[in-house]
Specification:
By secondary structure, the protein is mainly alpha-helical. It is 59% helix and 0% strand. It contains 15 helices and no strands. The longest helix is centred in the N-terminal third of the chain and has 17 residues. It is globular, with a radius of gyration of 19 Å.
Amino acid sequence: MESQQNESQRQVLMRFFKTGPGEYGEGDEFLGLKVPQTREVVKSVAKDFPLSEVPELLMSRWHEVRLCGLLILVAKYERLATKRLENDEAAILGRDEILTLYLQYTERANNWDLVDLSVPKILGHWLLLPTRCFALPNPSSLTSVDNKISLLDTLAHSPNLWKQRMSMVCTWKTTQLGDPSWCLRYAEIHLHHPHDLMHKAVGWMLREMGKRISMDLLRDFLRQHAHDMPRTALRYAIEQMSEKERQYWMTIPV
């Protein structure tokens, strides 16, 4: 990856991901690789790349190398999360091992793209799959929603912006799989978050929930909250609606 460094692209990425003093990506360093280049590296190595060596990638100073490590985890997780392997004991343990490693290095996913390209397909998918991660009250059960909520709540209430974003954006996968409850819960928790990146995440996830599951559920949420939602979140949430309906929601007094 270092051999593909591109100085002009590096400068573009540093501006795009706000790496200047006081900005949300302050101090992040880039090689200047585009995402398809990183995906090509992942495609060539992911299958045989030892899980034990992924932390070396996640600890890299280079943004793209950290992304490579995260996408290797995604690729490994997805191979163990197919319909055929959902209840397979070895696959359950393998998924839990990947999730545990991911959670140990959440602070290395320290920009919005690193979060958005990894968390739905690992943590988000795990929320709706059997797990052995916890000491369950009922040993015969492979699911414990309360434990999963507790884990996600810990991320949501962390002082770390990227962990907070993880708790919201991971619901993209639960929405895709037909469960709106995660999106609605964490949209409410983050509704008054002070950061614009979270306003965008909340609105984006609500929009996806409305589009994929139920526009009526989205309208119910807006009837309760549109009057005090950040305008960015509201604009993102209503993007799939007609122009007339968008105007209606945007004119609700704050």
